Amino acid sequence: MMDGFPDVMRAEWTKFRSVPVYLGTLLGAAGLMVLFAVLISSGSPGTYDQAPYVDRFRFTHRPLTGDGSIVARVAGQRADHPWAMAGVMIKESATAGAPYAVLAVTRGHGIRLQARFTTDIAGSDHKAPHWLKLTRAGTVITGYTSTDGSVWRPVGTVTMTGLPSTVEMGLFATSPGAERAVPMRPVLMRTRPGTAVFDNVSVTAPGPPWRTDDIGGAGSPEPPPPLGIEPTAVTVTTPAGDIIGQADDGSRVIAAVAGSIAGLLPLLALGSAFVTAEYEHGLIRTTFAARPGRVQVLAAKAVVLAATVFTTTLVAGLAAFLITQPLLRLQGFRPPTYPDPSLADPTVLRVLVGTAAFLTLGAVLALGVGAILRHTAAAVTTTIVLAMAPVLVTPMAGGPWPQRLGPLAGLSIQQIKETDDAFLLPWAGRTWTGFTLLCAYAAFAFAGGCVLMRRRDP
Amino acid sequence: MNLIERPTAATIETHGLRKHYGRTLAVNDLTFTVVPGRVTGFVGPNGAGKSTTMRMILGLDTPDEGRALVGGRPYRGLRTPLRHVGALLDANALHPARRACDHLLWMAHSNGIPARRVDEVLDQVGLATVARRRAGAFSLGMKQRLGIAAALLGDAPVLMFDEPVNGLDPEGIRWICGLLRGLAAQGRAVLVSSHLMSELEDTADHLIVIGRGRLLADTSVRDLRAQASGGRAQASGGRAQASGERAQAPGAQTQASGERHGLEQISLEEAYLRLTRDATEYTATEDGT
């Protein structure tokens, strides 16, 4: 297999560099990467262009005057995002941006005590069902959790200076989606509404009746369910909304790889054509007459393709990164909220190198599909559909699995903050999972190509 | 010259080759040997299985039965096959956007052949001036020359050409005939296919005639001529027998008389037509001569 492999690689490299359209496609992909990065870095800061926070959710609440507490059991939570919350809240007023403190269960981050868009205290790892209690004593808010409603463990306290004597106290749910998407990336993932089912709701002092408000315009198509005078079971549904302050979401780095998908498409065509063109021109017989080892030839093609695509896209990514930094600063992405990223940062390197690897694997996947199908149009169509179909069906599928299982799951390698975006959402917190899946796709297509090339007459 | 260090004997052997595509039996129990030092014509009507046989010799198509050996070894086992066998299968098998010199260069690289051979063979086939032109812009005749250059690249002791005369002008045909004879004279085994006997009769020393995938004759040109002349004398003998051995015996004497009567050209063509008549795949039109 390795016998004479350098000769075969040299031959395949000569083939590659001697067809102008191959080089043009490669450079075109690199150009698209830089172009998208520049365009996106010249736009508005997206989510945070109005205010330095997002405060949008459905709030079922009643006023509380003086000290007091609210207790509820989150019987169930339905939401997609790991940061979707369901819990209890004390908020200065029922308006977006008003100071607040919440104690909530999340889908993927256990119990959290959060306040004023900045404070985030981690509690236990429990998910729903779980008991939550939030108490107010002067300006001090304390959160407790319990598995049974009788033994309470404190999570932490937050101090809210300037809290008026009458505040709003109640139940809420969030469903992060577009809000947590980095503005640099397309929002292609749909999240379901976040629903929280509460029971055993109790507040210290009976008072004015409960009401439900959509804070920050979190309008729901379904009207809030009617509430009793003193309800003990409440369901809160937020179609799309979040409570989060503006923070470094990785935009400074992600902007550099904003052209990943735009760059991928020509590279898929390149990968396929590098082998299918030989079949269409009858050249494959000349190739196999020169080197009878089918697997050796396909392996040499893969190595040459991978080396050229990786090098080119890595350079393009680095160029895009360097070009976009001054543009992003101009657009307001600057310290202290958005620290200047450094190439020495392992995360930055992972994103840039990982993106080049993602595009390389895409090209190798396309090469394998090309070897299997032996027809340019068929192979290019198949690979592009394979890559992009999950993006198209996701809004209809209503779940993250099409995204998780498609080749684009490899974009998980670009994840910077766990809170981010569309593509990463399916594998949030698992940077390498999607990437490994893409490796498997590429390996599978390559192996399939090898098997069929050996078995079939060219 | 460097005949001594050539690693393989200059022969092609096929043993009971059989290959079918779907329901069509393309090659059926085909056995023959191509020996060095002469031009062997590989003739048969269109669809007789010539190209399929050549692809099997080159390890491209896998035979259903039998085997093909080059210098006693299966082609797929050769480490640098272009140094053992030079082949022209399809002159159009080119990437149209690739320059002629680059087409030869990748082939040279694949077998560790020095790059200067590219210029040498381009010069040899008369394409030196257009070496940097894209192959897609070539005429069929130029593509044939490029394909022949590719076959010569490895300086191989065994050479195969599938219909190399296609697309060549009369001057080109004369050139290639001289080239083939020259290659054989250097001690190489040269196998040239054609569906027209007339293209080969001045070039080939030996003929392998097939029809419908079967061997019809494996004979020297001289013997076939003699046999044809004999057959003509017998007139009512019907079609000639597909056997070189039978034709060998009366060979020498009748050949001379055939030439004297100026009949040999017609006879050879006719002998071929008789051989292949029953085996012609497409009988709607006769080969025009």
TrEMBL record, chain A:
The keyword Transferase does not apply. The chain crosses the membrane at residues 21-40, 253-277, 298-328, 348-370, 377-398, 432-453. Keywords: Membrane, Transmembrane, Transmembrane helix. GO terms for cellular component: plasma membrane. GO terms for molecular function: ABC-type transporter activity. The keyword Transmembrane helix applies. This is DUF1349 domain-containing protein. It comes from Actinomadura rudentiformis.
